[in-house]
Amino acid sequence: MNAIQIKNLTKYYGKSRGIVDLSLNVEKGDFFGFIGPNGAGKSTTIRLLLGLINATDGDADILGFNVKTQTTEILKRVGYLPSDAAFYNGMRVKEILKLSADLRGIDCSTEAESLCRRLDLDINKKVEQLSLGNRKKVGIVCALQHRPELYILDEPTSGLDPLIQHEFYSILQERNQEGATIFLSSHILSEVARYCKNAAIIRDGKLLACDSVSNLSHSDVKRVTLKGVTKALQNENIRDIKTEDNITSFLYSGKPDALIKELSKLHFDDITITDPDLSEVFMHYYKKEGM
Amino acid sequence: MTLLFYELRKNKISLLIWTAAISFMLGVCIIIFPEMAGQMSEMENMFAEMGAFTEAFGMDRINFGEFIGYFGVECGNVLGMGGAFFAAVTGVTALATEESHNTAEFLLSHPISRKKIVGLKLLSVIAQIIILNLVVIGFVTLLTAVIIDNPPYKTMFLIYLAYFILQLQVAFICFGISAFVKFNAIGLGIGVGFVFYMTNILSNITKDLKFLKYITPFSYTDSADIITNGHMTYKYVFVGAALAIIGIALAFIKYTKKDIS
What is the pLDDT of chain A when averaged over all its residues? Predict the structure, then answer.
C-alpha cells in the first residue's frame, strides 16, 4: 500500500510555477528522499500534501486519505517538520511541546522527554532565546513525539550540528524499522544516499527521476578516470571534465562500446570506470535538462 | 478547547492593559463628577456655543448637569472609543498574527480543522470582550454606587449593552478582515475603529451624511438617543448585526480555503 500517492499534482501561485503535473508514489515503510535545489518545488509539494495550500490541479492521497477532503485524518497520522520552524514567542520549549500534544489530544510527555534528552534540548528555554538549531530540535520533537505513521520532513537537518544530525537519523531509522514511513526533502545528497531506500529528483516543479537510491546511482552514467592521458577527449556524451595533475575524470552517458572506441584512440597509463555517487547523478539529471 | 485557552492566555496582558486603562479612565470621570456638577452651568453655555459639534456629540439633547447626561457623553468617549479599539485590535489580529508571526504552519499541521480554528479564535475574541466588559461594568457600578446618589442603573446598563453590541460588531467585522491579511494588522484595526467613530460624528454634523449611520456602529450607541428614547435605534442595530454576520461568514469562507504562507 502507498503511504503517499500523488496524481498529476499542479500548483501555480498566480502565474509563477510551483509544481507541474507531478506524480509520485511512496510505499508504506519506505525511507524516501525528495531531492532538488532551492525553488525546485519540494516545499510546495509537501505543503500541498498537508493541506496548507490548495492544488491548482491534480490530487493526492496520504495513508489512504484524500488531501483535499480529509486533511484532519491525515494530520492525526503525520508528523511534519517544516524547513523553517517558527513558534509562539513568550512560550517555553516545554509549553510548546505540551501545546502541540494537547492540540493532538494525547499525552506525549514520556516520548517528548526521551526525544529532548537524545537531542540535547533544554525545555526551559524561551522560544525567542533559541538558536536556529535549537528551534529545529523543537520542531523535530513536535513532529516525532506522537509517534506518527508517516513523517514528512522538509530539509530536516539544516542548522543541526553533525552529532545531533547523526542522533536524529538514528531515531528516524528506529522509527522506520518499527514500520513508519519517512519522507524527507533535502538537497544534501550524502544524507539521502546514506539513509534513504528510494528517492525522487525534482527540478523546476517537474519530476525528473524516481527510483531506488541504488538504481539511481547505477544509472547509465559512469564516472571515467584516466591517469596519464595525453590528449583531450571531446564527445557529446562526455561532461563534467575535471583535470588535476595528470589525472582526467569525466562523466560519460553514452553506450559503453562507443566509449571503448573513443578510449582506444588515446594513450593513458591507467583507467577506472565507476558508478557515480548520488551527487553526480543529481548533476547529471540537471545538466541533461539543459542547465 | 486547547486553542481557546491558549488564545486567552496569549492575550491576557493585552486584555489586562485595555481593561485597566478603560476602567481607570471611566473611574476618573465618575470620581470628578460631583465637582464638575457644580460648574455645569458654565460648561453647558460653552457647549451650546460649539455649533455643529454640539449636535455631533448629542450635547443639544441631554442635560450635561445630570449624572446620566454626563455619564452618557463620557462613557461614549471612553468606553466607546476604548472598547471599539480593543475589539478592533483583538478581532483583526486573531487570524492574521498566525501568518505574520509565521506560526500558521505550526498550528495548521495539527489535526484540527480550519473551521474549528476559526470558530475557537472567534470564541476567544468574544470571551475577551465579555471579560473586559464584566470587569469594567462591575468596577464602574461599584464606584457609582459609592459616589452617586440614586444612579439611573437601567439607562446606564442600556448604554453598556449598546457598547457591548458595538464592540462585538467591530470585532466581527475586523475578524472577517483578519482572514484576508497576512501582516501585523494592529494599525488596520485601530484605523477601522477610528473610521467608524469619525463616520458617526460626520453623520451627526450634516444631514446629507445621515446615511452613514447605517454603516457605523456608533449610531446605535448615541447616548443622547438612548437617554431620550429609552432604547437603542434598532434599525441601526439590525444593519450592524447583518454586517457582523457578513464579517464572520467571510472569515470562515476565506480562511478555510486560503493558501497559508
Answer: 90
Cross-chain Cβ contact A90/B106 below 8 Å: no
* % of chain A with per-residue pLDDT over 70: 96
Q: Domain residue spans in chain A? A: 2-210, 220-274
Nearest residue in chain A measured CA to CA from B97: A88
Q: Which CATH number fits domain A2-210: 3.40.50.720, 3.40.50.300, 3.30.540.10, 3.30.470.20?
A: 3.40.50.300
Chain B residue numbers touching A80 (CB-CB < 8 A) = 109
Contact B107 A54 (CB under 8 A): no
**In the structure grid, which three cell numbers stand for residue A209, read together?**
527521476
Q: Answer yes or no: do B111 and A51 touch at CB < 8 A.
A: no
- Cell numbers for B7, please give them: 488564545
CA distances from B31 to A20, A59, B28, B37 (A): 69, 66, 5, 11
Q: Do A50 and B257 touch (CB under 8 A)?
A: no
Domain positions in chain B are: 2-257
Cβ neighbours of residue A148 closer than 8 Å, sequence gap 6 or more: A77, A78, A79, A180
| CB contacts, 8 Å: B109 with chain A | 50, 52, 75, 78, 80, 82
Q: For residue A96, is pLDDT > 90?
A: yes
What is the CB-side half-sphere exposure of residue A189 using CA atoms within 13 A? 17
Q: Does B103 touch chain A (CB under 8 A)?
A: yes
With a pLDDT cut of 90, the percent of chain B lying above it is: 64
Does the complex come out with an ipTM higher than 0.90? no
Amino acid identity of residue A180, one-letter, is A
Q: Report pLDDT for A291.
A: 44
Please tell me the predicted confidence (pLDDT) of residue B46: 67
For the residues A24-50, what does the mean pLDDT come to? Answer: 94
